[in-house]
Amino acid sequence: SSAASDVYKRQALLYALGNFLGSMDKSLQHFSNPSMHREYTWDISTTLNARYKLDAIQDPEKRRMVGYFMQQFETIVAPQIYTLRKGYVHNDANDYNVLINDDKIAGLIDFGDMVYTAIINNVAVACTYAMLDKPDPIAAACLVVKGYHEQYPLEEKELSLLYYLIAGRLCISLTQSAYNASVESVNEHHFITMRPAWDLMYRLIEINPI
Questions:
Q1: How far is residue 179 CA from its own chain's centroid?
Q2: What is the pTM of this model?
Q3: Could you tell me if 113 and 91 are in contact, meaning their C-beta atoms sit under 8 angstroms apart?
Q4: Residue 129 in 3-state DSSP?
């Protein structure tokens, strides 16, 4: 059936995206650019900086949930994040930036978010976007990870933090959206993933590995 075919295509694309990013990160191992050594809002390693925007989230339950994930980040990720492998990563592999040709990944655009950071953060960003609006977000993330790992093997320590890094990316995104709303931004791009991001955060609470 065409529905089954569509599901297969989407699954194949998620795996291919991971494969593409793994190949790219591997090839950038010896690349160097001093301008990418920066403190950057969208770098998952800086998740705890988003605390300063936490009060912009109006709904108390949602604010508590983001605060909870930030606390997890502080206790579980923060002590380890600077011991992880680092590299220059694209940092924004979302639907709007991935070029597809004949159901294959043809390339990536928009390198404005590139940053020198933990390599696993690049995987976490791709997984976060892959998980949005999916009936089985964990399965979607696994396909990205599997594809990436085949090209550029991930370490056990990196994989053990992936759940918390995905949650960290959501914390950054949701506090930023709330902040943009509080200053009355009219840029629709600021809010484009807001609803599915909240949905995903509720799903992450349900599957919390702790």
A1: 19
A2: 0.92
A3: yes
A4: helix
Q: How far is CA 130 from CA 136, 141, 153, in A?
A: 10, 6, 20
Rg of the chain over all Cα atoms, to the nearest angstrom: 17
Burial-class residue 191 by CB neighbours within 10 Å (0-12, 13-18, 19+). middle
Instruction: Give me the helix-helix angle, 194-206 and 156-182, nearest 10°.
Output: 140
**Using N-to-C axis directions, what is the helix angle for 194-206 and 119-131, rounded to 10°?**
100
Instruction: List CB contacts of 150: < 8 A, sequence separation 6 or more.
Output: 18, 19, 22
Phi-psi region of 190 (alpha: psi -120 to 50; beta: other; left: phi over 0): alpha
Q: Give start and end residues of each alpha helix (H) in 35-155.
A: 60-72, 119-131, 137-151
Q: Give pLDDT tens digits for 95-151.
A: 878 888 877 888 888 887 889 999 999 999 999 999 999 999 999 999 999 999 999
Q: What is the DSSP letter of 152?
A: S
Q: Which helix (H) or strand (E) holds 87?
A: strand 86-89
Q: How far is CA 43 from the centre of its chain?
A: 10
Rounded CA-CA distance 111/35 in Å is 13
The phi, psi pair for 186, rounded to 5°, reads: -110, 10
d(CA 206, CA 191): 24
